[in-house]
Amino acid sequence: MPPHNVTQDTIVCYAPLMITSHGIWQGDNPLDYSLPLFVLQLSLVVVTTRILVFLLKPFRQPRVISEILGGVILGPSVLGRFSIFANAIFPLRSVMILETMANIGLLYFLFLVGVEMDMAVIRRTGRKAILIAVAGMILPFLIGISFSFLLHQGTQFVKQGTFILFLGVALSVTAFPVLARILAELKLINTELGRIAMSSALINDMCAWILLAVAIALAENERVNLTTVWVILSSAGFILVCIFVVRPLIFWVIQKTPEGESVSEFYICLILTGVMISGFITDAIGTHSVFGAFIFGLVIPNGPLGVTLIERLEDFVSGLLLPLFFALSGLKTSIGAINGADTWGILALVIILACAGKVAGTLLVALLYQMPFYDGVTLGLLMNTKGLVEMIVLNVGKDQKVLDDKSFAIMVVVALVMTAVITPVVTIIYKPTRRFAPYKRRTILKTKPDSDFRTLVCIHTPRNVPSIINLLDASNPNQKSPLSVHVLHLVELTGRASAMLIVHNSRKSGRPAANRTQAQSDHIINAFENFEQHAGFVSVQPLTAISPYSTMHEDICSVAEDKHVAFIILPFHKQQTVDGGMEVTNPAYRIINQNVLANSPCSVGILVDRGFGGATRIAGNQISHSLAAVFIGGPDDREALAFAWRMSSHPGSTLTVMRFVAGTDIEQPSTSGRVENDPRILTVVTDSDREKQEDDEFIHQFRTLIENEESIVYTETVANNGEETVGAIRSVGDVHDLFIVGRGQGTFSPLTAGLTDWSECPELGAIGDLLASSDFAATASVLVIQQYVSTGLEDFNLSPDSPGHHHEAFMNHTPNTNQRPSPSPRATYMQNSQ
C-alpha cells in the first residue's frame, strides 16, 4: 500500500466551529475538535524532536537534524504509513491550522535570525570571504542546474525554468544559524577559519534570500514579464523603506529609553506587530511573508532592544512553533517516492557532487589566498551546512507546485545527509593541533630581552582600564623591548546567534555608539589608542569577544595562542569600595579567571586593583611607582620577580624584593605514613631540592645584576612559620603601591603553612589572597602571577634552551632607562579613560 500523504488529499467541507470539545464524559472525541487536536500534534512534535536531540547528542548533530527527522518520522515515510495514525493525529482538516501556526512560528523565527545577524560583520568582510561565498555558490548552483534535467524527467506540473532555479538555490545555500552552532560545538568559532566561515555564510545567506525572492516571483510565470518586474521592484522598495524609515524610528525609540532601563512594553508590542505587518506586505507584493519578517529583523540594531526581543521570543518560537514547520516538511516528505535504483543512484550522485562542488570552489579560493590545504577542505565542508533556508526554499517550491513529491523528498534527504556528516568529518580531518604554529616564549622568563613583549589584557568594563594601562606603562616598553598589547573586551553573549570575535581595524569611525556595549568598546579602544600614541614603543590591537561566560576562557586562551602571547593580564572579580573594602563585581569573572589559570597557553597575572598609579603618585610629569616583590620560592615566584625586574627598569620606579628564608626553628611538614599514598606530597618532597637549587641560582644571578642599581633594594627575612611571614609583610603593607607575588601553584612551603586554611580566593595563592583580603587593611594593589607549565609539545625541536636554563633570557636583560621616552604620558591618556 502506498504511503498516505495527507497534504496531497482534497477535502470538500468540514465544521470550522468545532474548536473545543464538551469532554469525553459527554461522548465527545477530543480529536474531532481543533484545539485539543492541535495541542496533541504540537506535543507529539516537540516530544519527538527532543527525544531525537537526546539520542543524537553523542554524535554532535545540530538540532535542525533532529527537527527534520522528527517531521519525517511523523510523516508518511514512517508513522504516516499507517492510515489509522494519519487520519486520527494528522487528518487533512487539521493541516490548515498546522500550516498557519507553523508559518507564524517561521515568521518570528526569521525575524529573530535577522535581529541576531550583525550587518557590521558583512561590512567588515574582506575580499577573501566574499570570493569564498561566491565560489561556494556558483559550482553547486551549476551542479543543481545539471541535475535538474535528470530530476525533471517524468515529473508532472513542474515548470522547467523555475525548477532549475529552485534546485540551484537549494543546493548552493549555506545555513548561517546552523553553521554558527556547529562552529561553536567544534570550538572553531573564534579561530581565523571560523571567522571566514561565518562571514562567507552571512554573504551566502543574503544572496540566497535575493535568489529566493526572484524564484518566488518567477514561480507563477515561466518567463520574466511585467508582473515579475513589479514584484522585484516592490521588494526592493520595501527594503529601502525598512532601512531609511523604520530603522531611524527604532533608533528614536532607543534614544527615548533611559540609560539602564528596558524598552517599554508599548514599543515591544509595536515592533512585534510590525513583524506581522512586514510579512503581510511582502506576501501581498508577491514574495514570501518570511522575507518581510527577515528584513524587518535586520534593521533592528544590536543592543538592549534586540536582547529584549530575543529573550521574549526565542524559547517559545524555537522550542514550540518552529518544530511545527519541520513537522509539516516531514508530512510532505515521502521517502517511498524515491523508488528504483536509478533514483537512489541520482540521490547519491547529487549528494557527492554537490558537496564536492562546494569544497572545490571554496578550496580553490583558499589556496589562492595561501590558506593550508586542510583548512580549505574543512572550510568547504562547513559551507555545505544546510538548514532552515533550504527547507523554506523546498517548501515554497512544493507549495507552488514547482517540486513534486519525488524531487522534494530527494532534496530533503540531501539536506539531511549533507548536514549530518559535517561535524563528524570535520572532527576527523581537522585537528586542533594544526590550528596554531607552536612557539616557545610562553613565559616572561623566556621572553628575550631584545624582542617585543607580547601581552593580552582582558577588560570587562571601562573601570578596568586605568589600572591596567598604568601597569603596562610601568612595564617599561622601550626601543629594545617594545610592548605588543592585544586588548580583549569581554562581552557576555546575550541574544546573538553565536559567539563572535571582532577584530577592530578602523577605530575612529566617527559614528555614535548604537548601544551600551558598543559605547564601552569605543571608550576602551580610545583609551588604549591614546596610550599607544603617547607612550612610545607600544602597539595596540583591540578585539571584542562576545561569548557566554562559561566558554569565555576559551576565547581568551585561543587569542593568546593565536597571537603568541607570553603574558595574560586579568582583572580581579572584586573591586575597591569607597570605604576601602572589596566587593564582588560579578561572580562570573572569578570563574573565568579560574578557567584561564587552568587552561592558559602562557603565563597569567590577576590584577587586584586598589587604584594603582593614581594621581597621588604623580610628581610633576614623572610617575613614581613603589613596587614590592615577595619571593618565597618556586616557578611562580621566579616569574613574578622577572616581571618586577622588568618594571624596575622604569625611571620612576623603585623595587623592594623581600625574600623569605626558613629559620632554624622551621616546622617541617610531616609526611610519615602519607608519602606512599599521596602523589602530591611525594612530588613536593622529590622536587623541593631541585626547586631550592633553582631559586638560589636565580637569586644569586639577580643580586649580581642589581649591585649598582640604587632603585632596587633586596632584603632577606628569616621566618619559621606562616605567622611570622604575615607579620613581616604586614609591616610594609602601606609603604608600596603594588605587590608582585607568585601564585605558588604546585609548591608547598612551611613559610606559608596555615594561610591556605582561611583562604577566600585560592586562585590568588596563599600570599596573594592575604594581600587582597579586606582584613589585611592594605592600600596597595596586587599582581598575582602564575608561570606557564610546559607540556613539552610546544617546545619540541623549537627551543634551544636546556632544561636548567629557563631564566637565561631574563638574566640577559639589563635595565636601560635611556631608551624610555621622557615624561610619561599617563596623565594625558588617563584623562580619556576616566
TrEMBL record:
Location of this chain's protein in the cell: Membrane
Per the database record, which ranges form the Cation/H+ exchanger transmembrane domain?
Answer: 49-427
Task: Domain (Cation/H(+) antiporter C-terminal): give its ranges.
Answer: 625-789
- Give the matching InterPro entries: Cation/H_exchanger_TM, CHX17_2nd, CHX17_C, CPA2_transporter, Na+/solute_symporter_sf
The alphabetized UniProt keywords are: Antiport, Ion transport, Membrane, Potassium, Potassium transport, Transmembrane, Transmembrane helix, Transport
Citing just one GO molecular function, the answer is: antiporter activity
> What GO terms describe the biological role, i.e. biological process, of this protein?
potassium ion transport; proton transmembrane transport; regulation of pH
Q: Residues annotated as region Disordered?
A: 799-834
Q: Does the keyword Nucleus apply?
A: no
One GO cellular-component annotation of the UniProt record comes to:
membrane
Gene3D superfamilies on file: 1.20.1530.20
Occurrences of domain Cation/H(+) antiporter central (ranges): 483-619
What residue ranges are annotated as transmembrane?
35-56, 68-90, 96-117, 129-151, 163-184, 196-218, 230-254, 266-285, 291-310, 317-338, 344-369, 408-430
Question: Topology in the membrane?
Answer: Multi-pass membrane protein
- What superkingdom does the record give? Eukaryota
Family recorded in the similarity comment: Belongs to the monovalent cation:proton antiporter 2 (CPA2) transporter (TC 2.A.37) family. CHX (TC 2.A.37.4) subfamily.
Supply the name of the protein.
Cation/H+ exchanger domain-containing protein
